Amino acid sequence: MPWFVWLLAAAALGAAEFFTLTLVLGLLAGAALAAAVVAGVGVGLFGQLIALGAAAAAGLVIVRPIALRHMAQQPVTREGSDALIGKRAEVMQEVTATRGLIKLSGEEWSARALDESLVIPTGALVEVMEIEGATAIVYPRELLP
C-alpha cells in the first residue's frame, strides 16, 4: 500500500502548487508520482526514495529553470493599448503635466507629459512611454537618448 501514500503525497503537493504557483511543489508532486509508480512495481522503500530524489532533482535542476525562462519572456505581439507604447505621435494641443491632446495612430488621445516640468508645444513629435487608462504619457522625441 505504499504506492497509495505516495499518490496522496502527490495530490497534496499538487494542490499546494495550485495555490503557490512556485513550480517547486508541482515538480515535487511529479517526483512523488514517480515514487508511487516504483512502489506499485514492488520496489522497496530505499528504491522509492531513490526514485523520489532522482525525479525531484531532475525536475528542479532541469525543468524548472527552462519553465521559468519561458514564463519570463514577453509576449511576441502586444495587443490593445500596450501596442501603442513606443509609437510616435504628433501634439495637437500643448501637452503639460496635467493635460494635452495628441494624434496617435490616426486617433486623438488625451495626453500628459512624462516629465512634469515639460511643456510640449503643438506640432512637436512625441513618443508614447506608457498608457494610463485613456491617457497617453508622452516624452518629446528630441530629448530621448
UniProtKB/TrEMBL annotation:
Pfam family, one: NfeD
Membrane-spanning segments: 44-63
Subcellular location: Membrane
UniProt-listed Gene3D superfamilies: Nucleic acid-binding proteins
Membrane topology designation: Multi-pass membrane protein
Origin: domain of life: Bacteria
Annotated keywords: Membrane, Transmembrane, Transmembrane helix
Residues in NfeD-like C-terminal domain copies: 82-140
Full protein name: NfeD family protein
